[in-house]
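In response to reviewer comment 3 from the previous cycle, which asked for concrete evidence that the modeling workflow produces usable outputs, we include below a single protein chain processed end to end. The sequence was submitted unchanged, and the resulting structure tokens are shown without manual editing.
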Amino acid sequence: MDGNIIEFISKGGILVVPILLCSVFTLAIFAERLIRFALMRSRGSGLAEKVAELLKNGNEQKAFSLARDSHSPMGRILVQAIEIKDGDRELLETVIINATDEEVRNLSAYTQALATIGNIAPLLGLLGTVIGMIKAFMVIQQMGGKVNAAVLAGGIWEAMLTTALGLAVALPTMVAHSYLIARIDKYEARLQKGAVTFMKSISLK
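The workflow returned the following structure tokens.
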């Protein structure tokens, strides 16, 4: 069965290889991002509220250690904020915004690659189809116009195979890209909420 599938796919031509590589990259990127998000959720859950409570009680050193040792995006933002919390308010806000933007950029790593794969895969498939159609018509020419329906049909379906594979890779890739973007937007909102919680805690002291 596996041999038949491999033989079937191989009929699509050389461009099947980069299309299949695109699917491998998509799976690797999606799995890596999911694992990263799961780790961040476990490490940074409720961190801003805990740090804010410690700051309200005057435990600045403990708050700093808690944020630093969390090894989470929220923790890294809070570390930078705590270091200058007694300074200029405008500078503090700028540091928090820049730190948040940096963490969001880190969260977005490789997501653009998914968008690129989603765009490239169907184009590779289309290119493979065009090349396959050219080969099919070359065969017709070599036959002197005596078209064999079986030969023509075989050449066409083999040519169309790469388009089908390209779309089969592109569709789940774009779904994965949209899902990750939604997760990143949600996490960015959490970081912003945590920053607001921090700002309130030092304002109430």
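The helical segments are 2-10, 16-44, 47-56, 60-69, 73-83, 89-107, 111-142, 149-203. We consider this sufficient to address the reviewer's concern, and the full set will be provided in the supplementary archive.
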